[in-house]
Recover the amino acids of this structure.
């Protein structure tokens, strides 16, 4: 690891100024950034400690029913929050499925969204791939069992966040403060494909800080569910994950609105409009859930080792839809 | 069958050779299909002459052989 | 000088008299039904609190005044010639005290040592590594076993073939056995390279005296005396000028015999710098360079007659130990099941990958997996119950008894006939047989010391690979001296103590406990000589029990053990014991069997192990708690081998892509099933304690049982380990 200093800014504006400088990297839980530094993947000259900034802290359900997650709120707090569990179920489930209790006690909402991919070529200091300064994605033509089946080209990583699919399914947006002031962006539009820039996974600019994530109040008829499949039951990354939000009027057979967002299948959290359309096309039952799952994977382009993820993703999407709808799986 | 350790290079190492027979001989099992070897000089399963080391080939005919 | 004794040996319902000749000063071996006071009773790990509180000193924890931190530069290339190594920039970095070139010729795997530095901090050492300029001439390489066998493949060793020697064995006539068979099967099975993943990585702290003729090394090792002897040869020192210390060891599994590269690097750096140097490997280096269990491909043919008796067993196997040999896996085929016609063929293939090293029952988990899954495929084809098929083809009475105990504990009859669920998640059960021969060796010597305060110490130059060595040595001495276990302290892990053998091959307990028992018996004799005049008895008429020394024929005439110790003329009185060669005994093999239950999600391919029942014999069990802990570990390692672990080599780059705890997957807490362990006691009389080792026998059948259970659950064999979801789905025809 290189030598670096830790700077604790007095306020958000100074934090933003610091982070606009070369070699300055944000630090809160430190779970991912320290790991990247140990591997020599990033070598910041300074870590800007965001932990004390009060604008970034806290979890709050506002009187309007809107949920505010401070960027430095811990995953364990999100997982255990009674109101989140009750009304924003997929979000609490996604947080609780993440890593281990120790990591959930350290890891933050902002860090979870901004963590870098787990690709074993990207994380290997001896491999200079397209996501660093190289010109090749070694996963294509290499060992790619955990890599992208959708939207991969030209860098076939998968986005590792558990929280992101759940937040996008619940229509969350991020509040971002930076040198140009404050902006709000729907989380769905925050993440960027490698076609935009293979070196990055999102549109955060130098000096910008995610301060909070806002999840609008869901109507009482919304139900949500997050589900993932892992090889190991302990401390493992999802092979595929999905967050489902369904809005179905009481007594109605048909969904009038749905969101289907998959994780670990593409370089960004992958919202499937095709699956959503399929879900809304008629009364919700097992065959419809199956059709929606099939639609979600319609454009999948597996590589040499990861065709199984297509099969698995269809199953996980179908099961998550059935669970979110409160239907018994066949 | 275990053989007298004097036939093997003094620098040849393998798990069984860290044990001795009741007569004090290092135990080598040249016919074992699971024995792994290293050369103490190179620390690797390669002799100073660049060839693999094992109980069948680390004999007096190799230039790097050392008598125990 | 010796006496002839007839021993009652064996197991419940199957004992016989065996006459052995034993030295006069050797305690009579414990026999069947022997009433013992502390041996066999569960006793907690004596050093458990030290480990749990972090007070136990591992090599990582050693800090010496003026100590430097060493680091090793490794080749990123799988095959290269080194044209030049320029150390000058590293040498000139402030705080760097020694720099060494380690390899100046040819690199044969990515991760091979190239150079090393010692600096005043580990960060500086890492900085210095970056300043070393190595001019590599890269060469063609091959990391895939199949690719390495092609005529056109790059050669790992110059002009030598990548295909190593063939080992073959044959009894009877397999062709004939297959001809007469009523049913045959033929299938190929593969297993992946598994790394040891010692929780404590390899490493050492080395310190030379000012004159450079005395070397002290604290290291993470399975064999302090092996390290001592290797270092003595390497540095041309008399063995007595080298002292090796390993108080606590964070796992070895076969990868820590003798002086390993990083120990020698630490000592060379220490000599060059003139101060102590610590080298502990980072996790990635541990995965890539310190050894592994080779992969395997095993083509199996079995034949069975109408009575369900095997008529032929054949395996043609190959595996790659990287740049090492030792990839055989056929041993289980030769001996676990009885058959008149058995043929095995094993070949080692060299590849540009990290060298294999011994790993927990070398060859056996691979071979057992292939053999046992093939047995299940055969049983299904022949329409025989799988357990019955094994019973019919095993002639070992110990295993026969263990099958029944295990089947009852597991509920085999009900579970094996339970209808499969209609849902996506299917349950399945499997059974697999174990075998080992951990009788131990002669060589170790032990010292037992009684102090004036009535406490006892046992000193042996062994080490605790994690099995609870201190605890079982204390129990054995306590038994012999008639004391509670907490009155005896075990001192191990230092070559200043009397010699012992490495902790490998499941040899520690069977090799060390008899020496300790003899030492304790000799100490007892000395204490009897002190006590005898006071009790107006002959020493030979006394016995030690419950903390007292008594007249055997008149137990009311007694002295407290501690009161006898008060008569010691100095501060202590000591005695030695030696481990004598093995007696003929009852039988020298171990059986064992494991039953596994799994749940397979047939839509996602994800497997979970839900229950394992293990039945093992290891002669006399000294401490059921320690023993159970070893079996738990063996099973968990087997679950890792069955479901998760795979050293993955990228064919384009020639590197291991998953040298991390993140991507190289070990079972975690939620992957641990319910485990029930039963020990089947056998009085074997091979030594005075009759102890046999457990480390390996507890591991060999675990992955096989899980694989058989998966086959039962889904009705299709998954013939490759690890059984990752993609392979399970493929077996189900889903992908």
């Amino acid at each position: 690891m290189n030598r670096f200093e830790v700077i604790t800014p007095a306020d958000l504006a100074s934090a933003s100024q610091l982070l606009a400088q070369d070699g300055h990297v944000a630090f809160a839980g430190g779970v991912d950034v320290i790991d990247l530094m140990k591997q020599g993947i990033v070598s910041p000259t300074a870590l800007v400690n965001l932990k004390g900034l009060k604008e970034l802290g806290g979890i709050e359900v506002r009187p309007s029913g809107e949920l505010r997650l401070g960027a430095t709120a811990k995953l364990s707090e999100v997982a255990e929050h009674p109101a989140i569990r009750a009304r924003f179920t997929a979000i609490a489930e996604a947080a609780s499925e993440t890593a281990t209790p120790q990591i959930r006690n350290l890891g933050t909402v902002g860090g979870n969204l901004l963590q870098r991919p787990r690709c074993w070529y990207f994380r290997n200091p001896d491999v200079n791939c397209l996501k660093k300064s190289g010109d090749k994605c070694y996963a294509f033509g290499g060992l790619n069992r955990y890599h992208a089946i959708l939207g991969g080209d030209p860098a076939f990583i998968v986005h590792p966040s558990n929280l992101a699919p759940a937040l996008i399914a619940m229509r969350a947006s991020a509040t971002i403060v930076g040198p140009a002031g404050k902006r709000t962006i729907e989380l769905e539009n925050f993440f960027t494909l490698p076609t935009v820039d293979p070196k990055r996974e999102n549109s955060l600019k130098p000096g910008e800080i995610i301060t909070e994530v806002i999840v609008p109040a869901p109507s009482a008829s919304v139900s949500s569910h997050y589900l993932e499949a892992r090889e190991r039951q302990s401390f493992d990354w999802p092979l595929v994950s999905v967050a489902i939000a369904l809005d179905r009027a009481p007594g109605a057979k048909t969904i009038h609105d749905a969101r289907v967002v998959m994780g670990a299948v593409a370089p960004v959290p992958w919202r499937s409009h095709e699956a959503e359309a399929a879900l809304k096309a008629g009364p919700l039952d097992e065959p419809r859930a199956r059709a929606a799952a099939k639609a979600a994977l319609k454009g999948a382009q597996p590589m040499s080792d990861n065709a199984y993820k297509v099969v698995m993703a269809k199953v996980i999407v179908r099961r998550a839809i059935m669970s979110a709808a409160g239907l018994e799986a066949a | 069958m275990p053989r007298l350790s004097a036939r093997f290079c003094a620098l040849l190492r393998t798990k069984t050779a860290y044990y001795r027979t009741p007569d004090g001989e290092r135990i080598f099992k040249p016919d074992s299909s699971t024995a792994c070897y290293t050369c103490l000089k190179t620390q690797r399963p390669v002799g100073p002459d660049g060839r693999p080391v094992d109980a069948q080939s680390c004999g007096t005919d190799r230039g790097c052989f050392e008598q125990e | 000088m010796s006496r002839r004794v007839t021993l009652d040996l064996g197991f419940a319902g199957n004992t016989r008299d065996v006459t052995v000749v034993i030295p006069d000063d050797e305690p009579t071996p414990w026999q069947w039904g022997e009433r013992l006071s502390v041996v066999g009773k569960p006793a907690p790990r004596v050093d458990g609190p030290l480990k749990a509180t972090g007070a136990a000193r591992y090599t990582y924890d050693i800090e010496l005044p003026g100590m430097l931190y060493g680091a090793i530069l490794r080749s990123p290339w799988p095959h290269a010639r080194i044209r030049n190594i320029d150390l000058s920039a590293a040498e000139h970095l402030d705080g760097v005290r020694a720099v060494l070139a380690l390899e100046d010729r040819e690199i044969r795997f990515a991760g091979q040592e190239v150079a090393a530095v010692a600096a005043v901090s580990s960060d500086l050492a890492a900085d210095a590594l970056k300043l070393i300029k190595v001019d590599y001439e890269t060469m063609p390489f091959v990391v895939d076993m199949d690719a390495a066998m092609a005529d056109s493949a790059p050669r790992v060793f110059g002009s030598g073939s990548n295909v190593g020697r063939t080992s073959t064995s044959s009894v009877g006539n397999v062709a004939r056995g297959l001809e007469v068979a009523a049913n045959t099967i033929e299938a190929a099975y593969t297993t992946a390279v598994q790394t040891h993943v010692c929780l404590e990585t390899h490493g050492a702290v080395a310190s030379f005296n000012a004159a450079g003729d005395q070397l002290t090394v604290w290291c993470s090792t399975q064999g302090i005396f092996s390290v001592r002897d290797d270092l003595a040869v390497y540095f041309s020192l008399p063995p007595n000028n080298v002292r090796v210390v390993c108080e606590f060891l964070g796992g070895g599994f076969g990868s820590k015999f003798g002086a390993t590269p990083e120990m020698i690097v630490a000592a060379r750096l220490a000599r060059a710098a003139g101060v102590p140097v610590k080298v502990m490997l980072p996790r990635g280096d541990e995965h890539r360079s310190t050894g592994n269990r080779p992969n395997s491909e095993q083509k199996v043919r079995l034949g069975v007659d109408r009575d369900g008796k095997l008529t032929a067993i054949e395996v043609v196997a190959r595996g790659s130990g990287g740049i090492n040999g030792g990839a055989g896996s056929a041993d289980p085929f030769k001996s676990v099941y009885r058959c008149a016609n058995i043929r095995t063929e094993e070949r080692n293939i060299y590849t540009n990958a990290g060298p294999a090293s011994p790993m927990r029952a070398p060859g056996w988990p691979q071979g057992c997996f292939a053999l046992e899954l093939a047995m299940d495929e055969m049983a299904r084809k022949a329409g025989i119950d799988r357990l019955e098929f094994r019973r019919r083809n095993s002639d070992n009475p110990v295993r026969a008894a263990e099958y029944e105990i295990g089947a009852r504990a597991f509920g085999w009859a009900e579970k094996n006939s339970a209808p499969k669920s209609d849902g996506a998640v299917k349950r399945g059960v499997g059974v697999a047989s174990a075998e080992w021969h951990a009788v131990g060796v002669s060589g170790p010597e032990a010292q037992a010391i009684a102090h004036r305060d009535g406490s006892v110490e046992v000193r042996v130059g062994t080490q605790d690979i994690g099995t609870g060595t201190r605890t079982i040595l204390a129990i054995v001495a306590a038994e012999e001296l008639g004391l509670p276990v907490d009155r005896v302290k075990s001192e191990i892990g230092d070559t200043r103590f009397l010699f012992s053998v490495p902790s490998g091959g499941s040899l520690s307990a069977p090799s060390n406990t008899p020496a300790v028992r003899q030492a304790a018996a000799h100490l007892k004799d000395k204490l009897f000589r002190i006590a005898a005049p006071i009790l107006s008895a002959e020493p030979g008429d006394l016995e030690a029990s419950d903390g007292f020394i008594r007249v055997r024929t008149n137990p009311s005439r007694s002295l407290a053990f501690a009161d006898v110790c008060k008569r010691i003329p100095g501060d202590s009185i000591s005695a030695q014991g030696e481990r004598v060669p093995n007696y003929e005994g009852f039988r020298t093999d171990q059986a064992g069997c494991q039953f596994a239950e799994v749940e397979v999600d047939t839509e996602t391919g994800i497997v979970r192990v839900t229950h394992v029942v293990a039945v093992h014999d290891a002669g006399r069990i000294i401490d059921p708690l320690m023993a159970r802990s070893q079996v738990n570990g063996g099973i968990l390692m087997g679950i890792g081998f069955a479901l998760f672990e795979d050293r993955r080599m990228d064919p384009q780059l020639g590197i291991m892509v998953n040298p991390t705890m993140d991507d190289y997957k070990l079972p975690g807490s939620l992957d641990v099933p319910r485990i029930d362990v039963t020990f089947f006691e056998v009085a074997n009389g091979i030594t005075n304690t009759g102890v046999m080792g457990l480390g390996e026998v507890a591991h060999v059948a675990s992955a096989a049982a899980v694989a058989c259970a998966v086959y039962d659950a889904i009705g299709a064999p998954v013939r490759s380990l690890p059984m990752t979801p993609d392979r399970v789905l493929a077996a189900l025809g889903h992908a």
In short: Residues 508-534 of chain C form the longest helix (27 residues). The mean pLDDT of chain C is 97. Residues 362 and 517 of chain C are 30 Å apart (CA to CA).
